[in-house]
Amino acid sequence: MSAEDELIARYFKPLAKHPGAFGLADDAAAIAPPQGHDLVLKTDGLIAGVHFFPDDPAEGVARKALRVNLSDLAAKGARPLGFLLSIALPKGFREDWLADFAHGLGRDAEGYQCPLLGGDTDSTPGPTTIYVSAFGTLPAGTMVKRSGAKIGDHVFVSGTIGDAALGLRIRKGELDDPSGHLVSRYRLPQPRMALAEAVRAHASAAMDISDGLAGDLAKLCRASDTSADIEVARVPLSDAAADALSGDCDLIEPILTGGEDYEILCTVASDRVAAFEADSARASVSVSDIGRIVAGNTPPRFLSTEGKALSFLHPSYSHF
Amino acid sequence: MSAEDELIARYFKPLAKHPGAFGLADDAAAIAPPQGHDLVLKTDGLIAGVHFFPDDPAEGVARKALRVNLSDLAAKGARPLGFLLSIALPKGFREDWLADFAHGLGRDAEGYQCPLLGGDTDSTPGPTTIYVSAFGTLPAGTMVKRSGAKIGDHVFVSGTIGDAALGLRIRKGELDDPSGHLVSRYRLPQPRMALAEAVRAHASAAMDISDGLAGDLAKLCRASDTSADIEVARVPLSDAAADALSGDCDLIEPILTGGEDYEILCTVASDRVAAFEADSARASVSVSDIGRIVAGNTPPRFLSTEGKALSFLHPSYSHF
What we know:
2 copies of one chain form a homodimer.
Chain A (H helix, E strand, L loop, with lengths): L2 H10 L16 E3 L5 E11 L10 H18 L3 E12 L4 H17 L4 E9 L4 E11 L14 E5 L4 H9 L9 H7 L8 H7 E6 L4 H12 L2 E5 L7 H9 L4 H6 L6 E5 L4 H10 L4 E8 L6 E3 L17
Parallel strand pairs in A: 3-4, 8-11
Antiparallel strand pairs in A: 2-5, 3-5, 6-9, 6-10, 7-9, 8-10
Helix pairs in contact in A: 2-3, 4-5, 6-10
């Protein structure tokens, strides 16, 4: 066996529990969604120095790499089936880093019932680069799109907004975090798998929030050919984020635009709101009604309690 | 629109012709294999400075990135359905590089009827890094594995062996290439999609040759709990490779071990050989019977016309 095959057999084979992964001993995997179901596909990556700090613990990096993809599956209404992992390791990587990475990945693959199906392991002269392609299933034709929002629909978000953006500032030493909550939200997203069914049953449009609430809502509105009015006071904040904001009200911008929330943003018609809220409660995921879809082709307005629209310096994260 | 979304809309949206790609305007794609079919999954990547030269033309890099994955689908007996593209671009990349890349990718997506389904575009402090996840379909349960070879089966390869390995030496300035054939074989693999049906109908085991005939046959034999005896004189060479070898007989090692052939290696039971050869001829793909599967757990032997086993310094490519 080559060193490459040995690493794969030692660290990744135990994660390949789907029979169609053939124990990672073949060149490809074979899967099928249940009859009458579609397969939902998503790929998203993490690069050291861009999406995570090179000294972040490997176990958390692995879990985040999988979770950012699972978050998309949940927002589309899908249930996880499995994933492919592509990883490029820098020269001189430490095998204990890879062992920790595989341990974290295996923990979440098990926890989310999303086994490893296959992958590719390379050496790179650059930074550690990880791409996950995740696959989910849902009844055929029921994927919840960005483009279905209608004027008058209520705008919902799950969980709390802005924690990860503040956590990143803390990680950079720009803010304090007495509770540790904000950094933990930055390090390890909580994909809202439990909400997938309620989203599929009731939402007219949905996406996960990865590039910030303001920017992602603007994308949803553009795809739906609408705009939105959001009441900033109704955007749900964790206690830690509310404390930070009370000390520096300029933090409202990173909270609303900073990204990496990995919460679900969705729109729900008025007559489905009660059912959506009830199903969300049954799924034990908090959801908050933060505003309405309105006519227009301008970016959503974020309104203060006085009805004044906030303006942002950097409305959304972009790589270029 | 962010600069990232604009690049995607300008260069990649035209490639997303599958209805389940939603014009790359959503967060995920939705597909389904035909009823009674499996989906075959494969991911493989190219990194600048590792798998290609940073000054290689972008169009060819894109086509190779897709083709190395299609080659695996063909060897497993599958027909292409679509692919995901993850690409990390270095700071200061030139937009005309991306335009050329997308042009090449679109050409092959069209030619192989394998549309783009979605992807992820990032910025990296490292080299250009490209991962493709390709999806194919075949009747449920018929994926051709590595592990099915039986003692007495004939060992077949498609096309010619060693061209790309010699092409890489030429690209490095270590060899001459009067015809240009060898470098073109290194730059642009020809995945044997036309052979997929014949492989699925007749092969007991199959894989594509990416890490060299010797190493990949060793993997197939190990997975099948067998060994093999190969007659080196029967390994098919192009005229250009034969010319190079006649000038330097030490080149037999890179020819047999160098990799990137992207030909199909498969094993066929004696009573299926005639049918396999006939179906291959109908598909206009040349195949060569180069030896037999034998009992044992040692690496395959490559035998000279005098019956002497060759020994190799580096039997197979490994990243680590």
